[in-house]
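Private note to self, pasted from the team thread so I don't lose it. Backbone tokens:
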């Protein structure tokens, strides 16, 4: 395993502390699940908002707001009432995610809530914390429930199906929100998975930043890269490797902005 240079370790710690602050919340989709107090509202909002969290953050937050407004800002009630069947399947939610995909998710969440009480209840019933990679184990179980609620059909726009290869970025993001317990940005709602078992939500910017810092050599942003990056960050914080998601995100955004300015 690659070791982290002391200066890089200090940079990561400093940036994580700077970004992991209440000021981070207002411009990030984590703001949406934080609006709620009931577990099923929080879980549904976290999973749905993380599902559409790709692209421009302003657009993501705009579309999260619009998606929640479809549910009268009461996602758990909306799910349990089966009201999603009234949506026009072809209406757009966010980029390539449409109401048909949202309906797929909501039918599955209704089944999970009916059978297990909550998504955390599903995680506990399936003992995902005992799996080597709990996030991917949970994705498998959620995919099973979504398919069962949708006549056996899968939908990769809700959750990836290629679990051996996918970085599972969006579910790892939702799990960071639900599991990390420092009480600053993330909510620490679950105890079905520990913060030590979380994985970095790996996207293009985080991957490029990690490579620039010498933390990652793998070129693909896939499951192996996610595991390798998280493993090396665990050498700094075995109890909470995903605190450094804030640092990698912030450094990635600032690096992108610097590159844009230099090109002008």
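Design output:
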């Amino acid at each position: 395993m690659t070791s982290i240079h002391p200066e890089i370790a200090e940079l990561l710690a400093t940036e994580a502390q700077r970004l992991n602050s209440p000021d981070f919340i207002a411009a990030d989709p984590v703001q949406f699940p934080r609006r709620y107090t009931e577990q099923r509202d929080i879980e549904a909002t976290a999973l749905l908002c993380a599902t559409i969290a790709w692209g421009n953050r302003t657009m993501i937050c705009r579309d999260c707001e619009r998606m929640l407004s479809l549910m009268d800002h009461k996602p758990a009630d909306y799910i349990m009432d089966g009201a999603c069947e009234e949506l026009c399947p072809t209406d757009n939610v966010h980029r390539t995610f449409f109401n048909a995909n949202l309906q797929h998710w909501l039918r599955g969440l209704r089944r999970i809530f009916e059978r297990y009480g909550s998504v955390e209840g599903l995680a506990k019933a399936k003992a995902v914390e005992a799996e080597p990679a709990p996030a991917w184990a949970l994705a498998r179980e959620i995919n099973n429930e979504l398919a069962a609620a949708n006549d056996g059909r899968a939908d990769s726009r809700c959750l990836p199906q290629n679990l051996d290869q996918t970085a599972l970025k969006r579910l790892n993001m939702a799990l960071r929100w639900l599991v990390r317990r420092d009480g600053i940005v993330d909510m620490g709602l679950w105890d079905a998975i520990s913060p030590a078992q979380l994985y970095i939500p790996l996207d293009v910017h985080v991957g490029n930043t990690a490579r620039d810092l010498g933390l990652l050599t793998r070129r693909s942003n896939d499951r192996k890269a996610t595991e390798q990056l998280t493993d090396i960050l665990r050498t700094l914080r075995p109890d909470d490797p995903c605190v450094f998601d804030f640092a990698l995100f912030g450094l990635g955004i600032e690096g992108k902005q610097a590159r844009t300015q230099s090109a002008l």
